[in-house]
Amino acid sequence: MSKDKPAKIPTPQPVRGTQDMLGDFADRFAHVVETFERVRRLYGFKRVEVPVIEPTAVFARSLGETTDVVSKEMYSFDDRGGDSITLRPEFTAGIARAYITNGWQQFAPLKVATHGPLFRYERPQKGRYRQFHQLDAEVLGSDSPLADAELLVFADQLLKELGIAEGVILTLNTLGDAASRDAWRAALVEHFMGHRGDLSEDSLARLDKNPLRILDSKDPRDRPIADSAPDIDAFLTSEAQDFFGAVTAGLDAAGVAWERNARLVRGLDYYRHTAFEFVTDRLGAQGTVLGGGRYDGLIENLGGPPTPAVGWAAGIERLAMLVGAAPRDFVEFVLIPVGGEAEALCLKLQSVLRRKGLACDMGYKGNIKKRMQRADATGAVAAIIVGGDEMRDGEITVRHLGSGQQARRTLAEIGDARVGATHTRRLLLEGIDGNSWSNE
Length: 440
Known about the structure:
Layout: H1 24-42, E1 46-47, E2 53-55, H2 56-63, H3 68-73, E3 76-78, E4 84-87, H4 92-101, E5 110-119, E6 131-140, H5 145-161, E7 169-174, H6 178-193, H7 201-209, H8 223-227, H9 238-254, E8 259-260, E9 272-279, E10 288-294, H10 298-301, E11 309-315, H11 316-322, E12 333-337, H12 340-356, E13 360-362, H13 368-377, E14 382-386, H14 388-393, E15 395-400, E16 406-410, H15 411-414, H16 421-429
Parallel strand pairs: 1-5, 7-8, 12-13, 12-14
Antiparallel strand pairs: 2-4, 3-4, 5-6, 6-11, 7-9, 9-10, 10-11, 14-15, 15-16
Organism: Sphingopyxis jiangsuensis
Subcellular location: Cytoplasm
EC number: 6.1.1.21
């Protein structure tokens, strides 16, 4: 009588719209983040951290109850205390909430930057995920057009230092001040009401609450109507014209190329003045790689004091897709012990080298040949071999993996914790790497 086979445990699968990263893409992802961290320091932006979860009201009040993000895409749930909690779908609202609740007004104008995961329940596609990651930079408490210009120059330098600025265009528009926007909005409503019978269902729904969003509708039925709608330029106050002129003058002075896009809008009423996107045709339908604008009414909308602010965000995955080969993480030296006593010695030597700042690893398994092959595959500069002969003589054998040359070194000198990384590297490689160290 045969025994029943145990039920096969199902293999767990990732949540749809999420991804695991290892290897090349993980390297490119990390390269984007590291470059952002380096550039934001050049511009004096302070690192800030905000929670992944916020009260749902933070996003409902900032993004608008009628937006697709709030009505269809947010991951919201009631916690055990009965409070409605949401996984953050974007950074700006949480930073604005933190600005209010922590009294950061005392530091205004405040330049902050962050990065991390965000969550939206939307249809996954190339460059779009349900858990995705963004870079974010904000200037809070400044009404100067120079803040807008600095943020744009920051973004431009980031793209250039990532090596992806080729084919990426900064498109720019002004939404004017409150008076300009109100006058333009009224004119747009009148225009769209005259074509009400020809608008798509989505645009009809937006007509009352969010008429500016009809301008960037992708529905073919809306395009002729949107294209014939009045531009904001006819409604700009002199103050709004001067503000936009100062932003573009700042970009010109910094050597940042830009193009005007009079149809670039932000639908929510707290947006003012500058709106911008860096766009490319290299990512298919998801062509925006970085975007933002000025949101002078948001903090007030969340219950804080009237506070001008401007910011941008960029998808890390999208930037990583544009980045070429990223700098690889590699170890300089791979230690190969032969025998148990050698393993203990290599562990000690490895710790000393790492504390000096030299990246190293250890080959644990296999014969010498296989471990040397694995060391070579990592991209290491040299292998450090410790066997019985080396142990007896108080030495190590260093084999340069490029030239194939090798030499013995004194273990005491290499392992001296007082000797720095540069001098230790020289001691290890001198005479076997083909370089002259006479000028060091």
